[in-house]
Amino acid sequence: MKLTRLTASLIAVPLLFTAACSGSSDSDTSADSASPENTSVTVEDQFGEVTVEGTPERVVTLSVSDNDAALAVGVVPVAMAQSVVKPVMPWTEAAIDDLGGEVPPLLDFTTDVPVEEIASYDPDLILATGLAVDAGLHEQLAAIAPTLTAASVDSEDSWSQQAQRVADLFGARDEIDARIDAVQSNLEAAAQEHPELQGATYVVSLLHSPDQAGLLTGPDSATAQLLAGLGLVPSEPTEQYVAAGNDSQLSPENFNLLEADVLVGYFPNAALADAYAAMPVFTSLNVVQGGHHYLPTDEEWRAFRSTSLLSMTWLGEQLPEKIAAAVRGEA
């Protein structure tokens, strides 16, 4: 999108944070959650309670969204997770620049979580809310420093929940809630600017193989929440197909389930895009022939899949006009 009328308001709120925040909190954490230097703050996660003394300064972040959660409260991590698309995502790099910092050492999770390397940075807090953490790994990490993981073992934190839980540890809940409201308000404003989005149907697909296309479905996903904020609704036949217990990996004979007012379909590489372009079963779809196939960039797709307060703000600048163009058949 480049929604010029929205960009200024989306960018303005993040500038509230130029240093580690110490505002008051109305959260359900301990009564000391205003986080003065000599108090402690407790936040619950799937393993129990996580308590930090004072305001953490040496923070290590173990997922791309955790990187963003720390930066959103004004803290540049001493080490942070490397992204799979590019080492540092554009919204993350912009936040580091805004805080006057430099990109810290990057942690590579290609194989195992590098516990010894994490310990070498002498953290006073480890953020792992966007990482799958089992009891064994949690025990190793918690022995290094207080470690905040996802709230529930059964589901991932939503982008807003993650931002709020981390903000509670830094006494910055009011400011973070204001930024979450700003993202949602600007999506609503974008929806009003593009009435063609209201009630338009969508399908989101990872086109990862000529033999299979993956569907991203379910109302609780960050992608679904983002598109719903613009007024779109999921394709009912596609949702019903997956809800009935069918595999979310579509073979070509079921590519008709990619039909919608807009297909958000991502190719991991150019070779796959070429392969699909040579498949009549794909190119003959109305959604493709009619110019309704929106192809996210690598960065946009990563923002879809690793949503955070920062990436949602960034998507608010990039997405609505592109989705609207696809609905109009101008993709």
Report what the structure shows.
- The structure is a single chain.
- With 331 residues, the chain is α/β, with parallel strands linked by helices.
- The chain has 14 helices and 13 strands.
- The strands form 3 sheets. Strands 8, 9, 10, 11, 12 and 13 form a 6-stranded mixed β-sheet that branches.
- Strand 1 (40-45) and strand 2 (48-53) form a beta hairpin.
- Helix 1 packs antiparallel against helix 14 and helix 7 (173-193) runs parallel beside helix 14.
- 46% of the residues are buried.
Summary keywords:
331 residues; alpha/beta
Lay out the secondary structure.
Blueprint: H1 4-12, E1 40-45, E2 48-53, E3 59-61, H2 64-72, E4 79-81, H3 90-98, E5 106-107, H4 115-120, E6 125-128, H5 135-142, E7 147-149, H6 159-169, H7 173-193, E8 201-209, E9 212-215, H8 222-229, E10 233-234, H9 236-243, E11 249-250, E12 262-266, H10 270-277, H11 280-283, H12 286-289, E13 293-294, H13 298-305, H14 309-327
